[in-house]
Amino acid sequence: MADYTFGSVVTLAFDDAVDWQARLFRAAGMNDEDARLSGHHLVVADARGVYSHGIMRTPTYIEKITEGGIDPAARPEVVRGKGPTVLVDGHNAMGQVAAQFATDRAIELAKEFGSSTVSVTGSNHLGTAAYWVEQAAAADMVGFCWTINGNNIMAPWGGIDARLGNNPFGISAPCLTRPAVTLDMATSVAARGKIAMAMRTGSPIPEDWAYDKDGHPTTDAEAGFHGTVQPSGGYKGYGLTFMNAIVSALLNGSAFGDDIGDFFENPTQVQNTGHLLQFIDIDAIDDAEQFKTRMDAAVAYLKESPRRDEVEEIFVPGEIEARKYESQLAAGIEYPTEVIDELIALGDSLGVAAPTSTNQGAHR
Amino acid sequence: MADYTFGSVVTLAFDDAVDWQARLFRAAGMNDEDARLSGHHLVVADARGVYSHGIMRTPTYIEKITEGGIDPAARPEVVRGKGPTVLVDGHNAMGQVAAQFATDRAIELAKEFGSSTVSVTGSNHLGTAAYWVEQAAAADMVGFCWTINGNNIMAPWGGIDARLGNNPFGISAPCLTRPAVTLDMATSVAARGKIAMAMRTGSPIPEDWAYDKDGHPTTDAEAGFHGTVQPSGGYKGYGLTFMNAIVSALLNGSAFGDDIGDFFENPTQVQNTGHLLQFIDIDAIDDAEQFKTRMDAAVAYLKESPRRDEVEEIFVPGEIEARKYESQLAAGIEYPTEVIDELIALGDSLGVAAPTSTNQGAHR
After folding, report:
1. Which of B139, B147, B136, B132 shows the shortest CA–CA distance to B187?
2. Closest Cα in chain B, distance from residue A322 (Å)
3. What is the CATH number of domain B73-188+233-331?
4. A302 and B242: CB-CB below 8 Å?
5. Phi and psi for A183 in degrees, rounded to 5?
6. Does pTM top 0.90 for this prediction?
7. Which portions of chain B are predicted below pLDDT 70?
8. Which is it for the CA torsion A192, A146, A133, A101, positive or negative?
9. 3-state DSSP call for residue B119?
10. ipTM for the complex?
11. Pairing of strands B115-123, B228-229
12. How are the residues of chain A apportioned to helix, strand and coil, as percentages rounded to the nearest 5?
């Protein structure tokens, strides 16, 4: 559950934001379809309030494309397979392009075989897992997405050396009258970006966010930044992140450990990221309408639980994000001025004009 | 990672323990194969050091069989399916019997289709998830097992009413020269049994184990026992346990929420537990030998990480249990005398003799 406080903001209409990002990606060498997909993916994350995975990452993606770390013209393809079980080679495409190709295959194959297993290699950071598994839910399927994260920031339990990512995964299932229930979680307590933010502002961090270089919990953001992130749930989160790496990356020979390129710091390095999608067509197991009716009832049952005194509402996974998405889709997406300014400057260097609505910000 | 300290102990040879439990289950009405499977499952858990899921549960299982909560003669069957995706109805068999039937189907189907999805309804508590997913690993597959837990002990995040189990799941993958890497975790910080144990001994509990009736963290074991367990990783564990309930139980219409029978407290009530198995035949994605070679290297890489000063060895998921299993398979399994005494008394009531090795305990 993301929480952000912005200073000055610029509000962009959803479609304007997608169009702008698509033009940036096209200018960097992607075809129209891939550019629109990449832009849409990032803007959806922003609209859901998951700004850490939104257009603030566009400059990093475009730098990787420009410097050779990502191939904007790559076409993913199925390179091995057996019925509903296939291996996709992304050929170093944008992670979103490889993941969309894999998602389309996963839906097709699950329709034919009742379920599907799509393993992806030769990919890059796929953005939010939610975006892919919610396509399963929209097709009356239950979707699982596992992925290795391109940065080693977590130590094995008892260790002090960063040898694992906080590998995220997503699971989604549709309801009848409510938004899909979607869990999209990383396996650390807090994102490393939050620790970096605290370091920049000189704030202390909660003692369960990070370990220092010697493996001891620390409230000093700088010590935590130079140490490792704490796994969510202690050794359970460590176990889960390693299993995620196994099923997403080791399964198909994608990069693991020292072979993983840092997403942010080395734009020329090919990442060779791996993912795993597992989709289940609900109708193969039970009537999808009946399932979705049960989902509505289960969500209501949890939301109607008596609450702690200070709690106003109980949420199910993905509900806060879905509500934010609906509201920002209608009213426009609020962006921090700094993020917009950086993208305007990037656009200037690529000959891409910003939407006129960026002029409304306090900074102009 | 289980930790137990026993008072007086009785050591049983692995085979003697299995044979004894099998005879108890046969006396309760199961056929020879099902009885041996049930006994083997429980003794393997003990040998791995996971005593909470071992033969200390035999009296509860047998009471459920005797009182009508479990049908010892039920034959699970495939009732719906499409290629590698099937629904199994356990017809209220022992959870282990339904899960073994499902596991056999999952392996067969994954061999044929590269991967398989087996949803199970009409089942009971399936014991440890590890037992099922390790059969996948032994067949050169990666296995996932999701299951709802038959007791509501966790509140939705922000709530105070127990409306969810600490639903466990397991994932396993094989290595070349090492034991399979196996994560088997419940979604609470601590098992409720540990809170019950602390209440009995009058000990305080760590403040991250339980909430009291008002939803506040408590170190008072009795207040925690009458409250709810804390999810592992806070709201992430809550999200994970609900997703687990969705994919294992809601998917196929098994019991959820108020419909779930308590495993321990109502022996006449049919549980209607649901499970989900997802197996992937490694050879469908990449050569299994190469995968297992990568697994060996990945495990070594994590174990070789520099450690915190006080840590002697880094473990991967399931490694402590695998080591314990090897040692207790060779030297016999150490049981608390109370557990053995209860089973001897149960055997007396069923006309089942205890192994002669139970005579070696300090209690005779």
Report:
1. B147
2. 15
3. 3.30.1370.60
4. yes
5. -95, 130
6. yes
7. 1-6, 359-364
8. positive
9. strand
10. 0.96
11. unpaired
12. 45, 20, 35
A321, two tokens: 């994000």
d(CA A19, CA A43): 10
User: What residues does each domain of chain B span?
Assistant: 9-67+333-360, 73-188+233-331, 200-230
**Residue A324 structure tokens:** 């934010």
Q: In CATH terms, is domain A77-188+231-288 a member of 3.40.50.10580?
A: no
Query: CA separation (Å) from A72 to A105, A161, A268, B290?
Result: 21, 34, 13, 30
Scored b (16 or more CB within 10 A) or e, B306-332 reads: ebbeebeebbbbbbbbbebbeebbeeb
**Residue B39 Cα, gap to closest chain A Cα (Å):** 28
Give the fold, CATH level 3, of B9-67+333-360. Answer: Hypothetical Oxidoreductase Yiak; Chain: A, domain 1 (1.10.1530)
* Residues A273-305: tens digit of each pLDDT: 999 999 999 999 999 999 999 999 999 999 999
CB B301 to CB A239 under 8 A? no
Neighbours of A57 (CB within 10 A): 18
pLDDT beyond 80 at A268: yes
Helix residue ranges, H only, chain A:
14-27, 32-47, 58-67, 95-113, 129-138, 192-201, 221-225, 235-248, 282-285, 288-303, 319-331, 337-350
From B185, B247, B302, residue closest to A156, measured CB to CB: B302
Q: What dihedral angle (degrees, nearest 10) is formed by the CA atoms of B214, B240, B52, B328?
A: -150
Looking from the CA of A265 toward its CB, the CA atoms found within 13 Å total 6
Beta-carbon separation of B242 and A303 below 8 A:
no
Span A20-37, pLDDT tens digits: 999 999 999 999 999 999
Kindly identify which residue of chain A lies nearest to residue B311, measuring between CA atoms: A158
Instruction: Write down the architecture of domain A9-67+332-360 according to CATH.
Output: Orthogonal Bundle (1.10)
Considering only CB atoms, B161 lies closest to which of A112, A115, A306, namely: A306
Chain A, nearest residue to B85 by Cα: A114
Tokens of B147: 């299951």
Q: Starting from the edge strand earliest in sequence, which strands make up the sheet with A181-185, in order?
A: A77-82, A85-89, A115-123, A273-281, A141-147, A169-173, A181-185
